[in-house]
């Protein structure tokens, strides 16, 4: 199966909220939550996608070929490419009940693991949203990253214990989930959390801990001070606050603030291996992709996911060949240019 076939098949299976648009850019679904849209005007999601289009690749093929490796070392493991599936929780609510959080995670976790990537899994107000994905990660030998909502230190630590018991090689927390009004509507709101609380969680967890939802240098410095192994520069796909900047816009200032102190991942609007290349050139260590993995699953299950990961890897390889980078560390700002208009 190819990604294109999975995408075509998803048009019949993923509705009614997602239309599998020719460009997954947040325009048709703006404001649609439940559903995969961005919050309010949808500007956060739309901007993520649009600003990435303004970064362009600098082609140069006059060099002695040395082969290309997309291999990345992160969180104590080697991955075939620096791309991960982003956590997507409550799939039956936001897409439809063809998949549960358990069956969705089984497809995305195993499809990513088979191609040398890994999937983050989600969390929600009902326990199965967190527990069922853990079973998928256990089955995949721990190759998956459970992402816990900031429910409060005690509850986070209890979920972290269960995740470590399932063998997860790393854990994450989406610290920006306070903006998810859908949780409050379901009777389980989450709140911001001070740096001391994050540090307490990091101190108690035995595997690398990643904080997702960082959008400012100051937020990144607080995360680094709490001792996290990595951050995800993310506005939650535009779902937690309207009118944020695009993640690619704030990446350079965050890299200047904490680069070298903690791993820097990013998500929001990334669709191809060429998009991934742009983030690496601007200093990111890796990229998460959300919504396209949903239509890979709804259209092709684990096979659709694996096909998408293969496509991303071959696109990243092509960008490296055409710009003269033989390893990820050679992808730098000289290999891109900003649009002039
Ligand atoms: C339907 C849906 C559900 C999501 N659920 C979660 C979640 O449970 N936990 C989380 O940290 N992020 C969640 N996200 C945000 C994604 O992990 C990610 O940050 C975002 O989708 C990235 O943007 P992209 O979809 O444009 O690639 C969700 C996003 C969508 C669209």
Topology:
Elements: H1 3-13, H2 43-53, E1 55-57, E2 72-74, E3 77-79, E4 83-85, H3 91-94, H4 101-114, E5 118-121, H5 128-139, E6 144-148, H6 153-165, E7 171-174, H7 181-185, H8 195-204, E8 209-214, H9 217-225, E9 230-233, H10 247-258, E10 263-267, H11 273-281, E11 286-289, H12 291-323, E12 336-338
The chain binds flavin mononucleotide.
In short:
The chain has twelve helices and twelve strands. The protein is an alpha/beta fold and 341 residues long. A hairpin with a 2-residue loop joins β2 and β3.
Gross morphology: globular
The side-by-side strand order for the widest beta sheet comes to: 4-5-6-7-8-9-10-11
Q: Uncertain segments of ≥5 residues (pLDDT<50)? A: none
CATH homologous superfamily placement: Aldolase class I
The secondary-structure class comes to alpha/beta
Order of helices and strands: HHEEEEHHEHEHEHHEHEHEHEHE
The tally of strands reads 12
Specify the CATH class: Alpha Beta
Total domain modules: 1
Architecture per CATH nomenclature, i.e. the level-2 architecture: Alpha-Beta Barrel
Average pLDDT value? 97
Q: Roughly what percent helix?
A: 40-55%
Helix count equals 12
How large, in whole angstroms, is the Cα Rg? 18 Å
Reported for the largest beta sheet, the result is: 8 strands, parallel, barrel
């Amino acid at each position: 199966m190819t990604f294109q076939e999975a995408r075509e098949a998803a048009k019949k299976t993923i509705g009614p909220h997602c239309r599998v648009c020719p460009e997954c850019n947040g325009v048709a679904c703006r404001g649609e939550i439940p559903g995969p849209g961005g919050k309010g005007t949808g500007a956060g999601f739309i901007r993520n996608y649009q600003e990435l289009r303004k970064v362009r690749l600098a082609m140069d093929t006059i060099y002695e070929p040395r082969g290309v490796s997309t291999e990345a070392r992160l969180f104590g493991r080697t991955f075939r490419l620096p791309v991960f599936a982003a956590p997507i929780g409550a799939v039956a609510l936001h897409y439809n009940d063809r998949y549960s959080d358990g069956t969705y995670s089984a497809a995305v976790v195993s499809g990513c693991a088979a191609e040398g990537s890994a999937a983050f899994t989600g969390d929600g107000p009902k326990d199965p949203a967190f527990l069922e994905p853990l079973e998928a990660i256990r089955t995949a030998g721990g190759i998956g990253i459970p992402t816990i909502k900031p429910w409060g230190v005690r509850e986070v630590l209890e979920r972290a214990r269960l995740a470590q018991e399932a063998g997860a090689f790393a854990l994450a927390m989406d610290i920006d989930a306070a903006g998810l009004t859908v949780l409050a509507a379901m009777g389980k709101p989450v709140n911001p959390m001070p740096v001391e609380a994050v540090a307490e969680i990091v101190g108690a967890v035995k595997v690398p801990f990643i904080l997702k939802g960082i959008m400012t240098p100051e937020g990144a410095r607080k995360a680094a001070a709490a001792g996290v192994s990595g951050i995800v520069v993310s506005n939650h796909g535009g779902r937690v606050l309207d009118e944020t900047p695009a993640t690619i816009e704030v990446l350079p200032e965050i890299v200047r603030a904490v680069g070298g102190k903690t791993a820097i991942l990013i998500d929001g609007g990334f669709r191809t291996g060429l998009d991934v290349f742009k983030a690496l050139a601007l200093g990111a260590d890796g990229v998460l992709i959300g919504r396209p993995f949903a239509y890979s699953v709804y259209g092709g299950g684990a096979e659709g996911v694996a096909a998408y990961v293969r496509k991303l890897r071959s696109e990243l390889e092509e960008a490296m060949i055409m710009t003269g980078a033989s390893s990820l560390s050679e992808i730098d700002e000289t290999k891109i240019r900003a649009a002039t208009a």
